[in-house]
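$ fold --in a.seq
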Amino acid sequence: MRGPGGEEMSQGRKKAGSSRTSFEEELKRLEEIVAALESETVTLEGALELFEEGTTIVKSAQKKLKESQLRVRKVLGEKEGEPVLGDFLLADEEGEGREESE
């Protein structure tokens, strides 16, 4: 099966930008789209279809990044939008924190 740019597509591929694809799969597909567009063998219509697919994937990937960022903030106990300021502390043998010196 061939994609809009004439490139081979596997029939088992998940729909790019869907909630089932991983962030890494989306990045890989974006790289494939960029390579196809840079190859200059894609028709105008094919390029437009690839561009549309790419923008959908970018939106999905940005959403996944934001969700991951919120999860990290939740783990750190940080309120959304507030920066975490302070020194990183390492626990010493007595269980007290000490500043890292490097």
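$ fold --in b.seq
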Amino acid sequence: MSPRWDICPEIGPIATLRQRGAKMSEPIKITALTAEELALLLSRASRKTISGQDVLEIATTAGLVSAAGTINLIEYTAFLAKEISHGEN
């Protein structure tokens, strides 16, 4: 069973993002993350280090970086899933 970050937010990925400078009063918007925020979330979820530079490179190649320089987590993971599924065929 995966952890419930909403029950104990002080230990979850959002808490870590907030400790790194995001304002406590503002929720993290998964449809508009910086490459560093997205890398941190993905690193925590996978328990592997993922750099913001790697995230940005993939998002740029896929055309997923908005004019504001943010990345949508849903679009990013959908792109990765599509790329993985193409490799299986």
